[in-house]
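step 4 of 6: structure.
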Amino acid sequence: MRKVWAVVRREFLERVRTRWFLISTVLGPVFMIAITVLPTVLAARSGGTRSVAVVDQAGGSLGERLVAQLGTGNRFDAALVRVDSGSASSAQDSLTRLVRLKHLDGFLVVTPATVESGSAEYRGRNVSSLRDMALIESVIRQVVVVERLTRSGIDPALVQEAQSRIDLHTLRITKGGATGETGEATFALAYIVGFVLYMAIFLYAVNVMRSVIDEKQTRIIEVLVSSMRPFQLMLGKVIGVGGVGLFQFLIWGGAAALLFRYRQAVFTVLGVPPEQAAQIQLPPIGGDLVLLVIACFVLGYVLYSALFAVVGASVNTEAEAQQAQMPVTMLLVAAIMVFPMVLNDPSGSTAVAMGLIPYFSPIILPIRFATSEIPIDEVALSLAILAVSTLAVVWIAGRIYRVGILMYGKRPTFAEMLRWAREP
Amino acid sequence: MNHVQIVEIERITKRFAGHLAVSDLSLSVPRGVVFGLLGPNGAGKTTTIRMVMNIIIPDEGVVRLFGDGLGGRHHSARIGYLPEERGLYKKMRVHDVLTFLAEAKGVARASAARKADEWLERLDLASWRLRKVEELSKGMQQKVQFIATMLHEPELLILDEPFAGLDPINAQALKDVIVELSRAGSTIIFSTHQMDVAEKICDHVCIIAKGSKVLDGRLADVKQVHGGTHVAVAFDCGEDLALPVLRDRSLVAKADDYGPFAELALAEGASPHVLLERLVGSGARLRRFERVEPSLHRIFLDRVGAAGAEEVGHA
């Protein structure tokens, strides 16, 4: 055991001392915040109101209604330009010029055809803002429906009332009743959990592979395996590198807890007004979720690091490893590929199946757990399957590793590796 | 504990993909000797050492260390092993590498750290203790490697081609350390194909070729058994005149010309006196005429001969 401990200690300390550890510990959360929060912030920030013109070639009340409707939100500042079909193109030219000069963000062209066939045209500087375009489209739809109904003789006031806005407020219900947790917050939480697990498992498992290759390349492996069993060495390596991962989680968790505790002070320093700070919604993170994430990281990391250790033992150089690690990397990537499907329907058959397969469950299971209520025995079954397969994979990997670390030259085929596993 | 035979190898055989690397080899190494494992490249020296070290398992046969069959790993704290292929963790600090490698062998951390400092002091590397290995010159890295092998003051040292790639200064330093450890009671096994080195420091030798033992025993005994009378001769001038004498097969069985002198193996029953008379009579001017023991080099060539030589290049 003392020998294993020596390896654990070396792997842990040598990593924690590096600049890489410092940078990833500091930048990890920054990066996570950047990819999850930034798009929302940017979308909200990008610009207050948009000034648009509505070019009405239709005559009638369509243009007026559009301007009024667009003005109801705070997003658009709309102006009406009435033209007849003769001067339409020259009006559009001068509006285009205004857009180019940035006096105008864009303009919407409605024609008699808009009411009949529902076609309209928007031209603007930025047409890729999905939110803005969706807003404009829904306004047009609404107004066109009103116009059509009015034309068929229905009282516009009645139509307007029937059109009153619906706001679906989503709340997650668990066994404990409604949680007060919103759909968006749940989504964000599940997304972060899945992504952090994927990154952590991948990065640390690849680290184990690098370490194996390093010992093989420097030939120090021969001294090591003359002092301890290859399995002891692999075990020490996996524990040591995994310890770095858990240590990093601990730092992040501690920092997050501190931030949360002293959030008022932080908001004051950042100059966030209190009423706005109160609006910031934090997804509630239960202790059971934290435990599950840690269990999934540990089991998933051990499973994948054993596989990556085999890759490391089967190659001679890092360059060869790039290619050899493909099959293992693909397994992890597959988990990320079904990610959106699981988020959309966490209780669907795909999600349930993927949550049971050991190669995917370390990532899929916590996502399902964060987004929906899953029975505790299903969680237990998933974890049990994962734990048993991890043990089996580690055992087989250890046997291949044992032979591979002393082999140089031609890369072994899959069949050869299986033969090594069967050797006494 | 005080088992007389430190290493006992009994009829070990190892095959690699049909190729016979070591075949039915038996050896024993008594306590306190300097044991030379000699053979051409590809003879099976490294494979034998790896089996002793428990790195690979023999297909047949048994290896006993310190009188038991528990294997090299079990005894790693009592063994210092220097593999043929050298290497250290490049990114680690010198002192940390030494401490770790000793810990890996089962030495307690505190004692490993202290001994690392002592050895670094002794080999003039103390000021480098906190530098990374990759910052050291090649010669210094070799020294660090020796320290890693010997730090825990092992009872048994196994060195695979220790002199390969050493500059003369480090080679001398290593030779000194080996002699010193041997005096202190350590048993040392080393493999080499450099016969002159082996001849200087070995008590025991074992020559293997093509995976099998050719001869084995105390160096003095080997020389005696190899027998015959050997004479070293050198000429000032007139070597041509001596040629007919040297080619007389009833007198000289074999002649090795080393340039400055030649080593002659006399034919059976031939007397050195007769040879001296004939040489003087030939008119050549002798500078040296000396009865010598056969050199290890000579014995090696005689015994391994063409059979071993064809293995060269297969290594």
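step 5 of 6: annotate
 - Residues 356 and 382 of chain A are 5 Å apart (CA to CA).
 - Chain A has a mean pLDDT of 83.
step 6 of 6: archive
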